[in-house]
Amino acid sequence: MLKKLVKNLKPSSTLLINETSKKLEDQGKKIFKFGFGQSPFKVPQDVVEELKHNAYQNKYLPMQGLQELREAVAKYSSKKKNYNYKLNNVIIGPGSKELMFLLHTIFDGEIILPAPSWVSYAPQAILGRNKIHILQTERENNWFPSGEQIEKIILKDKKKNYLLFLNSPNNPSGQVCSKLEEISEITKKYNLIILSDEIYSELTFSKNFKSISSYCPEKTIISTGLSKWCGAGGWRLGYFIIPDELNNIKNMINVLVSETFSAVSAPIQYAAIKAYENDHSNYISKSINILSAVGKYVFSNLKSNKVLIKEPQGGFYLMPEFLNKKFKTSVEMCENILNETGVALLPGSDFGFNPDKMLARLSFTDFDGEEFMNKISENQNIDDDTINQFAPKVVEGVNKLKKWSETL
Fold it and tell me: Which CATH class, in words, describes the domain spanning 2-42+281-405?
C-alpha cells in the first residue's frame, strides 16, 4: 500500500522549481528565481565560527537532541511565548520537515489543511495514510480559515482525532493569521491538536507576532528551526516544542527518531546553541527591514486591475492572482510566464487551491542578501533606489511580470 502511494507522488514542487531554474540558467537563459523560497542572507558569523570550532564532534548525540541545545531552545522559546517550556518539551530534528513527516506517521486521525498550505503537508499526510480535509480560504480572511469552517469538519464526527496545520506567517501567501483566538476556542471545545508551523515567525514584519500557543499552549505543537531566520536552510536543523499534555506524541516521535535519523549532525547542534544563546537582534532586524521593503516594492509595482494581491506581512512571499481567461490551470499559466518572461513562479494548485484559480506563489529573495545587509544600517529607510541597487533581479523580474500581466 505504502509503495503504491509513493509511486503516485511527485517530487516537491519547491525543490523541483529550483532545479528547473538551474537547468534553464545552464542553457544560457536569464531566469528570475521567484519560485524557490530560500533565505538570501548568510548565517550569522558567530554561529559559523561555532560550527568550525565543533567540526571535531563525531559522537552520536541523544536522539531527542543535545541537552544544551534543547535547554537553549526552551529558554529562548519560553521568553518569546511567555510560557514555561522545559528541555524535555523540545525535539531536535534534521529540519522541521522531517519531524512533520514523523508526526504524520504516528498520528491516528484526520488532517485539516487550510488552502493555501505548504506543498509538503498534503503529500506527507498521504504517506501517513490519514484522511485529509482541505479548507478553501479567501483573500478577505488573509487566506486563513475561520473557526466556523474548522468546526463544520469536526462536527461530522466528533469522536475522531483531528490535527490542524496552521502556518503563520504563511507560505505561500505571506499573510499572518488574525483569527487565533477564534480558532483556539474550537481547539478547546473539541478534540483538536494544532501543529503551529512558525518557521517564518522571526521574520514577521510587525513587532507583535502572536502564536496560537498563546491561547491554547497545551494543545499546540510548535514547529520551527534555523532555516529561515538564520539563513541556514542547508544546515537542516529544526525542532518541535511539544507540551507535557501531548507527551504520548513526543514519545512516539522519539521511537521513530531512533529508527530513522538517530540524531542530528553533532557539529550543527553544537553551533545552533549560539544561534539561540547569543544576541542576533541586529541581524534579524536588518533581515526584516530588507524583506519588508523588497516585499512592499513587489506588491506596489505588481498590483493592478489585472493582478489582485495583498501586501506581505512576513517571510519571503506574495501570492498574486492574475485575472484572465487565457489559461485553464495555474500550472499552464506559470509555464507560460516562465517561457515568456523567464520568471519562475509556483502555481496555486501546488498549495491546495483549485487548479482553475489563477494564483501563484512569488518569492522575492533573488538578490545577494549579504551585500544588501552589509551596505545598510539597522533602521535605514530602504527606498526604491536602494532596492534597484541591491535587488536588481527582483526589480527586472517584477517589470517583466507586470508587462506580461498587461497582455491578459
Answer: alpha beta
Q: In a 10 Å sphere around its CB, with 0-12 CB exposed, 13-18 middle and 19+ buried, how is residue 182 labelled?
A: middle
Domain boundaries, the chain: 2-42+281-405, 45-277
Distance CA 391, CA 317 (A): 15
pLDDT tens-digit map of 36-87: 888 999 999 999 999 999 999 999 999 999 999 999 999 999 999 989 999 9
Q: What's the whole-model pTM score?
A: 0.93
**Of 208, 179, 408, nearest to 308 (Cα)?**
408
- Does the pLDDT at position 198 exceed 60? yes
Determine how many CB atoms are found less than 10 A away from the CB of residue 134.
17
Domains 2-42+281-405 and 45-277 share a fold: no
Q: How many CB atoms lie within 10 A of CB 403?
A: 11
Q: How many angstroms separate the CA atoms of 197 and 32, rounded?
A: 28
Q: Does the pLDDT at position 110 exceed 60? A: yes
User: How far is Cα 204 from Cα 169, in angstroms, rounded to an integer?
Assistant: 7
* CA 54 – CA 47 distance, rounded (Å): 11
Tell me which residue of 241, 197, 207, 199 sits closest to 72, measured CA to CA: 241
357-368 exposure pattern, b = at least 16 Cβ within 10 A, e = fewer: ebbbbbbbbbbb
Contact 52, 69 (CB under 8 A): no
Is the pLDDT confidence value at 11 over 80?
no
pLDDT at 36: 80
Task: Give the strand pairing for 343-344 and 238-241.
Answer: unpaired
Name the class of domain 45-277.
Answer: alpha beta
pLDDT in tens, 262-297: 999 999 999 999 999 999 999 999 999 999 999 999
DSSP 253-277: HHHHHHHTT-S--HHHHHHHHHHHH
Burial class for 120, CB neighbours closer than 10 Å (0-12, 13-18, 19+): middle
